[in-house]
């Protein structure tokens, strides 16, 4: 029995299928906590990027995301519009969709990787052919995790610390070169130091000459 269950889970993926602007998408069923009716986001002053605002879900504040802008479209709300409550590594958010189509089981042999040139700007990196339609498998971490407030700020920190670590050796290098050049420079410094004394030494013979004259 366990072998049968294991082979079944490996042979297919369970997704929450939904449509958005005429295209079909799927989210891993494990990442979707629940499905709620569409509620217009409030606190629109907090809106930024794809986040349209906030809604209250049983006393919990939920940022609401609309992917229409990324698709070059504008959201049109209907009676079928829903919000998927999705959990990602950075928190929980709501995803607006046009229609929820239910649970879909996709055989793994029908899932293919999207070419890298296209996947770089896509919300997922895999697609599946189901009957006469194409279903894009959304990578929730890739498409949604970075949208929550505070998420992008955590990534630049290591990048900023790395240059700081390399700066001291770079700044020490010129000093080391100057230190190496120091043995050769003292004569020049002594000459420059003696330079102001030269007029004094020259001044004495001039006085002598004046005396002789």
Key words describing this protein structure:
single chain; 213 residues; alpha+beta; 6-stranded mixed beta sheet; 5-stranded mixed beta sheet; globular; disordered N terminus
Question: Can you tell me about this structure?
Answer:
By secondary structure, the chain is α+β, with helices and mostly antiparallel strands. It has a 6-stranded mixed β-sheet. A hairpin with a 2-residue loop joins strand 6 and strand 7. It is globular. The termini are far apart. The N terminus and C terminus are likely disordered.
Would you spell out the secondary-structure blueprint of this structure?
Layout: H1 2-11, E1 12-20, E2 23-28, E3 32-37, E4 51-57, E5 60-65, E6 82-88, E7 91-97, E8 99-107, E9 111-113, H2 116-119, E10 126-130, E11 133-137, H3 140-143, H4 151-154, H5 156-181, H6 186-194, H7 198-212
Parallel strand pairs: 2-11, 5-7
Antiparallel strand pairs: 1-2, 1-8, 3-6, 4-5, 6-7, 9-10, 10-11
Q: How would you write the strand order of the largest sheet? A: 8-1-2-11-10-9
Q: Helical stretch count?
A: 7
Helix content: 25-40%
What can be said about the biggest beta sheet?
Answer: 6 strands, mixed
Name the overall outline: globular
Rg calc: 35 Å
Catalogue the unreliable spans: 1-7, 152-174, 192-196, 207-213
Instruction: State the secondary-structure class.
Output: alpha+beta
Give me the count of strands: 11
